[in-house]
Specification:
Chain lengths: ~625, ~325, ~300
């Protein structure tokens, strides 16, 4: 190369400096972002004075802060913590117990109920809470036909409020709704009266943060996509909670939530997927709590009749074929594999969480797992594999026993269970075409009836009425899974609806469950649990509901949020997180390395240029 | 050669045409293809048939397609992106609240990836075939080949989990103010930005390197050398600026792809950005929100491309005539 | 190579077709010789051959019942042992078996999606380039530029949500979102080829559009296309992984991306089952890396300008 010495020498020093500057600038840029955080992070102010903060991790978003719009996710947790019902579900077995009202008494024929409210109730803004608020709330539900609460009120129901603490409920038909109790949260008339008469969509969209409510905590702020905060309600009528504030952090995946629990960024993790039980159960100072199931995984047969497209397999009309399918399915394997052992094998359609109403099928009535028995049952019915392709044919039509089975990808364990069922039914010569689809598509199948069976879920209310209702024959095309129709069952449903003695009604509810178990409109595959975990080194004194195996954080009432308290002398999450973070030595090492590399590069370049010169 | 003003004008017009195209795709995608957004709600909210019909009416799904299109375009012009099927909130508001975190993440990630990538590319190409070049090329290829989501998972599990050095996810710890808040955001930013940086640094290094090699072959470099311009001067004055231009365009063109990586990274690190919003909305089949994210992301890319085009045009006047 | 050498001394060919073919064979042989000298390319080819072999042979070795959730033979979630060298998953399936079966899906998605994208991109690019400057060109070019701008992930998410996540749909989604860059490259190549003298001459001799495009433009664009395809496969495999991690991958097939998704959502790593999360990521990295290495080598082989430097 032909290069002129003089220009070259003038160029060198400048580039050397420039390069050094680039290297340092780059190093600083990288380091600032990180380094800057270290000193501040440890200087992070702990919460003012000795506020007790409970940090809760969730993976389900808070979609609605407005009770009229509640659907799923964390909506219920927030509503339950901040609102009261007229009577509430008891912690023991969800039986009604005093809440805003101390009790409700019916007249002789159950057409008029008189409820007595506590004295001196107030909303969280200090204004009085009276029976007029209760009547307003119920009328609001009726007048705006808010479907998820509407069913508690017979057509033509009226309310009277002779004084601040008395509510009279007049029903044209005998009813036991007030004592169910109605799952309707009482809202302040002062807040909602301006929305009377709007259409439902507008009502659902009314923003409601910060909230005025009557429960122990109220929602004070919500950062979309990040989390929300609930503060203690100073005017709460009951016992004062030990916790001052509950902060919810939203994680977009389970692993992140569990790592946060492990490292003490949060004190409580809600809704841990069953598959992750092994990830939490081994953690130090973390207690895992398995909640009794309040939903069930449903393998529902289709009997047809929804629409012209509904063309289910005729063989499924045979009870013996359905029974053979029940016998071929290993429910225990589903509980173990699809739910990592956190579910119970299912039997009846009333979930175990409603322990008063749930019937445990006695052992001698149980249809057991018995693939050999299933095969011979099918043989007896003439279902044999004539062409040797491994799939039996229907003797009356000659068609193979092939089932189209959509499974909901939005339901925990549904697809996994479906994949297991493909294997189980292949054993007995029934082919399953499993179709994992979102709930949107499930709805299409459900509406059109173009499936042979589907795998989805039901949850139901604490009271069994709703869950039993959906199996009645007039629900075809409405809530019924696959248009199951059985006159005997319909009678049982009507009977329980008009029986006012709780224990007497229970016997009929049991009979209805037994009838469904025998008639097999579908298979209750599993009662999946719900997993919660908390830092046992920080908090104690939880009150699970329902019963010992209930939710630690609200499922049905807020009692637990009142009784939970910090373990004496415990480090809170906030203090812990400021202790955590990257150890100082790492930062120092990073800084040293960066500077060293920078200097080395600069020196090498200078040397190289000298050599080249 | 056209005047700068005409050049910019043409580019803006092109961008507008693209915008109309994106709007149309956005419209068609969710109406012509199968799947009815309304039926989704029916079960979860226990809607009656009448509710469903009402909702369909509100969403305009019961009108002829051409009419729907006109209404839709009108709404877009007013910035009305509809309401979320799930929360009933304005989509425009939801989406707007997520733009800043994504800009922060993608911006910092791109910035670091560019600085480091360009530096590696320049150094490697300048001393082609030497040790640094070979090892950095291999490393770049390896980084380019690594799925960023998977890398993010490993970082989450090792640095936030086992070592506990960084928060496991989220944007900021609640209840912090001022400097402490900024520091806390930086702590939360570290792992996602690191993942994004590593995900793209390889690509940018490779591009910068090959573009350097292209320029090094150019006549003006040879003649500069013949004239005796010192090597560092050639590199700094002639090669790097010329080689940086195509890299610069690529980086801007790539914003769309970086957004793709950001979706996964935001999902892994619970980062409350656009990508995470899209991810959550897929799960809950919230069509209007998915549409909103699609639209905003596309508009973002169009704007960045426009900026790149215009900047390119000014940096390299030859382009303006083309 | 033997064939090429034989051709070199072969007697004058009998037909036009065989002239063309022998010329192509010779060109291929020359390229192959250059490629063989490229160490990076050869390493990539070696790694890729291994995975392709696994994908072809592997799944037939694995007992289908062993990767069936209901009939998986091993204990659930256990550490590697002789019978299952990469441990087992939550159903008691051997992770190695899953990896072997998944290799086929990952490669099939990669190849077919890339092929789809290339065919689409090349047709649009060649047509646009061939009719350069005309109305057709400006329409096609506009379309290409539009698709370049749409963030692929957003379109992919939208399509996957609307169409549903089956193997076929995932392939379509990836192809539809990645053809535009190919079209752009091919168009500019075609534009320059079109101007060459012999193409002009053929046109003067009355050759039709189809003939010109398929006989003259396409073969000349082919080298660029080939290198592009290889890189596109790498991108397609990465895209499939991204979609799978987002839960939008093919639900009816096991791919490496899906194994990553399943293990992450089952908390594999934090439960200490690193062998369930780490290997699929490494496999994806190796395959993608081998494709990019081959792609870069091809670029140098087919693009002599690069070789000179």
């Amino acid at each position: 190369m032909m290069l002129d010495r003089s220009t070259r020498s003038t160029g060198r020093p400048r580039t050397g400096v420039a390069r050094l500057r680039t290297v340092l600038a780059f190093g600083t840029a990288l380091a600032t972002m990180a380094l800057v955080t270290a000193p501040f992070a440890s200087a992070q102010s702990d919460s003012p004075d000795d506020e007790v903060v409970l940090r809760v991790g969730v993976t389900a978003n808070l979609d609605h802060d407005n009770v009229w719009a509640i659907t799923a996710g964390s909506d219920w947790i927030v509503a339950t913590l901040q609102y009261d019902m007229l009577l509430r579900f008891g912690s023991e077995d969800l039986a009604p117990e005093p809440s805003l009202a101390t009790g409700c008494e019916p007249n002789e024929d159950h057409t008029q109920w008189t409820c007595t409210l506590r004295e001196g109730l107030t909303w969280s803004d200090g204004s009085p809470l009276t029976s007029r608020d209760v009547a307003f709330t119920y009328r609001f539900v009726i007048d705006h036909d808010i479907s998820q609460y509407r069913s508690y009120f017979e057509k033509g129901t009226t309310f009277e409020t002779p004084d601040d603490t008395t509510l009279i409920w007049n029903s044209p038909e005998p009813t036991f709704a007030p004592d169910m109790p109605p799952y309707v949260y009482i809202v302040p008339e002062a807040v909602w009266s301006e929305h009377v008469g709007k259409d439902r969509k507008e009502i659902r969209a009314v923003p409601n943060t910060p909230t005025i409510a009557s429960g122990p905590f109220t929602l004070t702020s919500h950062d979309e996509g990040q989390g929300w905060t609930m503060e203690k309600n100073p005017h709460y009528w009951g016992e004062e909670p030990a916790v001052d504030r509950i902060e919810f952090t939203l994680y977009s995946n389970q692993e992140a939530m569990i790592q946060a629990l492990r490292n003490g960024e949060i004190d409580f993790a809600d809704g841990i997927e069953p598959a992750l039980i092994d990830s939490v159960s081994g953690l130090d100072d973390v207690e895992v709590h398995q909640v009794v199931s309040d939903w069930w995984l449903n393998f529902a047969f289709n009997f047809g009749g929804q629409s012209a497209q509904a063309d289910p397999l005729p063989a499924l009309k045979e009870r013996s074929v359905r029974e053979a399918i029940v016998m071929a399915i290993d429910k225990q394997a589903i509980a173990d594999k699809a739910y990592s052992g956190t579910a119970m094998p299912g039997d009846t359609v009333i979930r175990p969480a409603s322990s008063y109403w749930h019937l445990d099928i006695p052992a001698d009535e149980e249809i057991r797992y018995d693939p050999e028995g299933a095969k011979s049952l099918l043989e007896q019915g003439g279902y044999v594999d004539g062409d040797g392709d491994g799939v039996r044919e229907d003797p009356s039509t000659g068609e193979p026993l092939e089932m189209v089975v959509p499974a909901s990808t939005d339901t925990t364990g549904a697809v996994e269970a479906g994949e297991l069922i493909v294997g189980f039914l292949a054993e007995i010569g029934i082919r399953v075409d499993l179709r994992p689809v979102t709930d949107a598509k499930m709805n299409d199948y459900w509406g059109a009836g173009n499936f042979d069976a589907y795998i989805w879920y039901w949850s139901g209310d604490p009271d069994p009425d709703y869950q039993l209702w959906i199996f009645t024959s007039d629900q075809c095309g409405n809530w019924s899974d696959g248009c199951f129709a059985d006159a005997g069952y319909d009678d049982l449903y009507e009977q329980q609806r008009t029986t006012f003695d709780r224990d007497e009604r229970r016997e009929i509810v049991f009979e209805a469950q037994r009838r469904l178990y025998e008639q097999i409109p579908g298979i209750v595959l599993a009662y999946p649990g719900w997993l919660q975990a908390y830092r046992s080194d920080r908090f104690e004194g939880w009150t699970p509901a329902p019963g010992e195996q209930g939710y630690l954080l609200p499922g049905y009432n807020y009692e637990s949020a009142i009784t939970v308290r910090p373990v004496a002398g415990a480090v809170t999450a906030q203090a812990a997180s400021s202790e955590g973070g990257v150890p100082a030595w790492v930062w120092i090492a990073v800084a040293v390395v960066l500077v060293a590399v920078g200097i080395a590069i600069a020196r090498r370049n200078r040397r190289r240029e000298l050599e080249e010169a | 050669m056209s005047s700068p003003r005409r050049y910019v004008g043409r580019k803006v017009l092109q961008a507008l045409a693209t915008l109309v195209f994106v709007l149309t795709v956005n419209f068609l995608l969710f109406r012509i293809l199968p799947g009815d957004p309304v039926s989704i709600l029916a079960r979860s909210q226990r809607l009656t048939e009448q509710d469903v019909a009402e909702l369909q009416h509100e969403l305009g799904l019961d009108r002829p397609l051409a009419r729907q299109y006109v209404i839709y375009m009108g709404q877009m012009l007013r910035g009305d992106l509809g309401v979320s099927l799930l929360t009933g909130d304005e989509v425009a508001g939801i989406v707007a609240s997520r733009i800043w975190p994504t800009l922060l993440l993608v911006g910092l990630g791109t910035l670091f990836a560019t600085i480091i990538g360009v530096w590696i590319g320049v150094k490697g190409a300048w001393r082609r075939g030497r040790g640094f070049d070979r090892s950095s090329l291999l490393a770049s290829l390896a980084l380019y080949s690594t799925p960023e989501g998977w890398l993010g998972m490993l970082f989450l599990l090792v640095f936030a989990g086992i070592l506990g050095w960084f928060p496991a996810g989220g944007y900021v710890t609640q209840g912090l103010e001022g400097a402490a808040r900024i520091a806390d955001i930086a702590e939360h930013l570290f792992l996602p930005v690191l993942t994004l940086t590593l995900g793209y640094v390889g690509e940018y290094a490779i591009v910068m390197r090959s573009s350097m090699l292209d320029v090094l072959n150019e006549d003006f470099v040879t003649s500069a050398r013949a004239k005796g311009v010192p090597e560092p001067e050639i590199r700094r004055r002639h090669v790097v600026p010329n080689a940086f231009l195509p890299t610069f365009t690529l980086i801007f063109l790539n914003i769309g792809f970086v957004l793709g990586g950001a979706v996964v990274i935001e999902a892994v690190f619970s980062w409350p950005g656009l990508g995470r919003l899209a991810y959550d909305s897929i799960d809950r089949v919230d069509y209007p929100v998915i549409q909103g994210v699609f639209l905003v992301a596309s508009v973002g890319v169009i704007v960045f491309n426009l900026i790149a085009d215009v900047a390119y045009g000014f940096l390299d006047p030859r382009v303006r005539g083309a | 190579m033997a064939i090429a050498d034989a051709d070199a001394v072969a007697p004058p060919p009998a037909s036009r077709r065989s002239i063309v073919w022998s010329r192509r064979r010779r060109a291929f042989a020359a390229h192959w010789r250059t490629f063989r000298r490229n160490r990076q390319g050869m390493v990539g080819l070696g790694v890729l051959s291994f995975f392709v072999l696994v994908a072809i042979v592997g799944p037939s070795i694995v007992d289908p019942a062993a990767i069936e959730e209901a009939t998986a033979p091993w204990p659930l979630k256990v550490a590697p042992a002789a019978d299952y060298p990469l441990g087992t998953d939550r159903y008691g399936r051997s992770v190695l078996d899953l990896m072997i079966v998944g290799s086929r899906i990952s490669l099939v998605v990669g190849f077919t999606a890339a092929l789809g994208a290339i065919v689409l991109g090349a047709s649009v690019g060649i047509t646009a380039g061939y009719f350069g400057g005309s109305r057709i060109d400006s329409i096609l070019n506009g379309l290409t530029n539009w698709f370049l701008v749409i963030p692929w992930i957003a379109l992919a998410i939208a399509l996957a949500v609307v169409l549903g996540a089956t193997l076929f749909n995932v392939i379509v989604v990836i192809a539809v979102t990645s053809w535009a860059s190919t079209a752009r490259v091919v168009r500019s190549q075609a534009l320059s080829v079109k101007e060459r003298l012999y193409v002009e001459r053929a046109r003067a001799l009355g050759a039709g559009n189809w003939h010109l495009m398929s006989r003259h433009v396409l073969p000349n664009v082919f080298p660029v296309l080939f290198a592009n395809t290889v890189l596109m496969v790498a991108l397609a495999i990465l895209s499939e992984t991204t979609l799978s991690i987002l839960g939008l991958g093919p639900t009816n097939a096991i791919s490496w991306g899906r194994i990553i998704d399943e293990s992450f959502s089952a908390g594999a790593f934090s439960a200490g089952l690193w062998w369930w999360l780490v290997p699929p990521g490494i496999a994806i990295m190796l395959v993608t890396l081998s494709f990019t290495m081959i792609g870069f080598a091809l670029d140098e082989v087919l693009n002599p300008r690069l070789r000179d430097r």
